[in-house]
């Protein structure tokens, strides 16, 4: 599995509110054997999850999901809330996965924190730091790796226009998800297995985490054009309701093809690296990372529950900012070169000084041995 498979989900015409575009995703039939239930937390503010090995994941955690694969389908989804201080972005220092997803009482239920599996996977990227004792890196980097790592995200209620757009959004029969755009940039995808789950979990989108880029686009982006369909009286003409219905369906199909081939292309065509977190009976819970390619293409991290054929029953994504993509790209290049700055410079086709600048720009400067780096920079200049 290398790509997100939305087989079984159909696209319906978008609804627009200002700069926010919501594209519904519907299923002809719910996914059998899987439901999402609620996990309500008490209290307010940020929370922490002990990951073991003296490591703690701390973040804004609005609610939890419980995946139930009992095949009964008797329960519906609900949600709880936990909000931090207004206007404050969430920061999430993390090391590795231990209890971000855990069994919930019975063997056929699993509690997990939506989006936090994905964020934890991104923050754990090459978390161990230098694996070789190069002089350029400080003792702290060799002893503790990239600890602590933190990234900023924004709660949905801090994204202008999102709360109102979600409030007035008209749900479709069979709707099991949506694609959320801000200034026509894909901000997030959300998919669940059953329409009843979506109906009750739809409001949680205003409490989810969104990237810095999405927040900026919402502030500075212009209103986007609404979806319009024009049915023309062609050679055959519209002679009755059957002709009108066929023409309307043709417009829906044209919109779906244009959407998948243009607006959602980067999400659906990117080749991801998937990591399976848990087996859920006939399903599997995975988190995924993009290839961190340069060149301006949008890139997402996320988590997905798939069936045996790899089709998405549940999906949640988080769009990375350009800075986060550059950081992931740099960490991959450093790890490929065993964290040797000289070899990394050769691989990137740049100088030692440029690699040092990029390491510092990624927020990893404190891990460098300042004296050794300064001496090598002087030698490079003198040479």
Overview features:
383 residues, four-stranded antiparallel β-sheet, 29% helix, 26% strand
What does this structure look like?
This protein is of the alpha+beta class and 383 residues long. The chain contains 11 helices and 18 strands. It has helices at 116-123, 139-144, 162-168, 195-201, 212-220, 241-263, 265-269, 322-336, 341-348, 352-361, 370-382; strands spanning 9-11, 15-17, 20-27, 35-39, 47-52, 55-59, 64-68, 90-91, 101-104, 106-112, 152-155, 175-182, 185-191, 209-210, 273-280, 283-289, 300-306, 312-319. The strands form 4 sheets. Strands 1, 2, 3, 12, 13, 15, 16, 17 and 18 form a 9-stranded antiparallel β-sheet that branches. Strands 4-7-10-9 form a 4-stranded antiparallel β-sheet, with no helix packed on it. A hairpin with a 2-residue loop joins strand 2 and strand 3. Helix 9 (341-348) crosses helix 10. The protein is globular. It starts with 8 loop residues before the first strand and ends with a helix. The model is unreliable at 73-99 (pLDDT under 50).
């Amino acid at each position: 599995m290398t790509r997100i498979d939305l087989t079984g989900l159909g696209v319906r015409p978008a609804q627009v509110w200002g700069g926010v575009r919501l594209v519904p995703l519907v299923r002809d039939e719910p996914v059998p054997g899987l439901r999402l239930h609620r996990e309500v937390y008490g209290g307010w503010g940020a929370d922490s999850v002990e990951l073991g090995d003296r490591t703690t994941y701390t973040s804004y955690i609005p609610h939890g999901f419980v995946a139930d694969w009992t095949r009964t389908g008797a329960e519906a989804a609900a949600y709880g809330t936990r909000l931090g201080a207004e206007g404050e972005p969430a920061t999430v220092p993390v090391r590795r996965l231990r209890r971000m997803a855990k069994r919930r009482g019975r063997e056929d239920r699993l509690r997990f924190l939506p989006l936090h599996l994905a964020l934890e996977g991104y923050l754990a990227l090459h978390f161990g730091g230098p694996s070789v004792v190069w002089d350029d890196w400080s003792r702290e980097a060799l002893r503790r790796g990239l600890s602590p790592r933190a990234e900023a995200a924004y709660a949905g209620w801090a994204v202008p226009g999102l709360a109102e757009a979600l409030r007035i959004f008209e749900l479709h029969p069979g709707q099991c998800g949506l694609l959320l755009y801000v200034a026509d940039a894909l901000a997030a995808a959300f998919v669940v297995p059953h329409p009843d789950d979506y109906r009750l979990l739809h409001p949680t989108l205003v409490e989810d985490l969104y990237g810095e880029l999405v927040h900026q686009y919402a502030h500075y982006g212009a209103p986007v054009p609404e979806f319009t369909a024009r049915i023309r009286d062609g050679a055959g003409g519209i002679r009755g309701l059957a002709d009108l219905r066929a023409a309307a369906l043709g417009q829906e199909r044209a919109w779906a093809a244009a959407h998948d081939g243009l607006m959602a292309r980067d999400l659906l065509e990117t080749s991801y690296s998937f990591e399976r977190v848990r087996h859920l009976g006939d399903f599997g819970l995975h988190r995924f990372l993009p290839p961190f390619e340069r060149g301006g293409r949008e890139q997402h991290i996320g988590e997905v529950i798939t069936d045996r054929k790899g089709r998405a029953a549940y999906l949640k994504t988080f769009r990375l900012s350009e800075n986060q993509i550059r950081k992931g790209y740099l960490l991959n290049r450093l790890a490929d070169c065993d964290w040797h700055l000289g070899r990394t410079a050769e691989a990137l086709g740049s100088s030692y000084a440029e690699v040092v600048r990029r390491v510092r720009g990624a927020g990893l400067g404190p891990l460098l041995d300042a004296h050794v780096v300064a001496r090598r920079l002087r030698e490079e200049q003198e040479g």
